[in-house]
Amino acid sequence: MSRLIVVGSQWGDEGKGKIIDFLAEQAEVVVRYSGGNNAGHTVVVGENEYKLHLIPSGILYNGECFISAGTVIDPEVLLNEIDYLDKKGIKVDNLRIDQRAHVIFPYHKRLDVLAEEKRGKNNIGTTKRGIGPCYKDKTERIGIRMCDMLSPTFKEKLKRNVDAKNKLVRAVYDVDGFDFEEIYEAYMGYAKKLSKYVIDTSIPLYDACIKEKKVLFEGAQGTLLDLDFGTYPFVTSSNPVSGGVCTGTGIGPTMIDEVVGVVKAYTTRVGKGPFPTELFDDMGERIRQVGHEFGTTTGRSRRCGWFDSVIVRYAVRTNGLTSLALTKLDVLSGIDTIKICNGYKINGEIVRDFPANIEDLELCEPVYEEVPGWKEDITNVTKFEDLPENAKKYVNKIEEICGVHIPIVAVGPKRSQTIVRENIF
Ligand code: GDP
Ligand code: IMO
Ligand code: MG
User: Fold this and answer.
1) In percent, how much of the chain has pLDDT > 90?
2) For 137, 218, 246, 248, which has the most beta carbons within 10 A of its beta carbon?
3) Protein residue with its CA nearest to atom 28 in ligand 1
């Protein structure tokens, strides 16, 4: 298939970076469509590990890479990432940034921190990268985009925003304001360095789609972090679901052929918010240690729990998933009995659809089905037939409960540790 979306189908960190990197070998264009450097995508190739936050994971190959209009860009972070890749011998000549993408400023980052502090024990647990405040300015229609940063009117727009934020932080948070000149000078420097990458990416993207080129849309975050369909208010401020591809890149839904949901063989979450299958016992700790479940962006411990088919079925529906890529199956090796959540119990009643109300979700008790585990190390298995019988049954069971097939199974972080049952791209 020519145009394929890879979308996170849990609470982020499902291993999207690895799956995108694996598929990107065949891609002619790879596009990031939403979010910013709240994302952290890890790609392991041989002995080399790459941690990417903004630049599409496809950069490790030679295709074109776009950061589209729906994203928010911290120019300092982007320049550091370009530098980081350069030091690892990866050139970014094929990178293009959309002129409509919104720019993150120091006041966004500070406001993110201040708002979290003000929320106290009800904090969201954001990544503190200024993502929410930047998207807030966008919807308030006062945001500054990449094209604005490169325009002669930049100074005036920035001055207006800095003045407004200074009034806000002094009045609401009782802290010092921001130095306009300092921000302006720094951002003029970033603009100079980044201008060569800035274009209207929707034009070559449309062209690539029309010419039936292989285009890969790289999801960030995950379905349950989606502003509209996630566990609101414990969500991010963008639309990671597949629908976000159209609004975020400027192409229509008729251009999309396949939507692949990336899911871990269990569930994790960073930050606050309900998580029905979360484990607080030794098993949760075991999964965290064996799966190295510590955040790529903030280093925080990830909360761990059993596979939750209620949320994955919800992801199948809200993204129109055509298949799943199952990651980290290797992490479950050695567990005697594995649990799969098939539904929730709320006040004694069985619920199979994901509730919208956060209070309902907090009351949800997972209803589990137990399946036998396997002992063998599977990190070197390359063919599905060679997996232990119970590992195969586990994958098939997830397929059956979620109602979509699983053509890709990952058994380790490396590019080579990927089992392909069917070619989907
Ligand atoms: P992303 O945000 O969805 O790209 O995921 P992250 O990169 O934040 O987190 C996934 C982590 O799991 C990374 O450290 C990957 O290298 C690692 N990983 C991905 N797939 C597998 C797998 O199948 N097995 C193991 N053991 N690790 C994996
Ligand atoms: P990738 O692309 C996991 C979470 C934060 C917090 C909430 C809001 O690596 O899967 P934000 O800073 O976006 O306002 O934080 O969203 N979050 C992620 N969790 N993976 C991510 O990205 C995330 N991006 C944001 O932890 O709970
Ligand atoms: Mg991540």
Assistant:
1) 96
2) 218
3) 413
Residues with CB under 5 A from ligand 3 (ion): 13, 40, 296
Residue where the block lists tokens 């240690």? 289
Chain segment 173-205, per-residue pLDDT in tens: 999 999 999 999 999 999 999 999 999 999 999
Kindly state the average pLDDT of the residues 206-223: 97
Domain that holds residue 289: 3-88+201-420
Residue 96 domain-assigned (yes or no): no
- Say what the pTM is: 0.97
Strand order in the sheet with 198-199: 198-199, 95-98, 64-67, 29-32, 215-218, 3-8, 258-264, 323-327, 408-410, 418-420
1 — pLDDT class (breaks 50, 70, 90)? low
Question: Rounded CA gap, 123 and 112, in Å?
Answer: 11
Measured from CB, residues less than 6 Å from any atom of ligand 2 are 8, 12-13, 38-41, 124-127, 129, 131-132, 220-222, 225, 236-237, 270-271, 296
Q: How far apart are alpha carbons 182 and 158 in whole angstroms?
A: 11
Q: Which of 196, 219, 247 is the last residue of a domain?
A: 196
- Does residue 99 have a pLDDT over 80? yes
Q: Which of 196, 219, 238 is the last residue of a domain?
A: 196
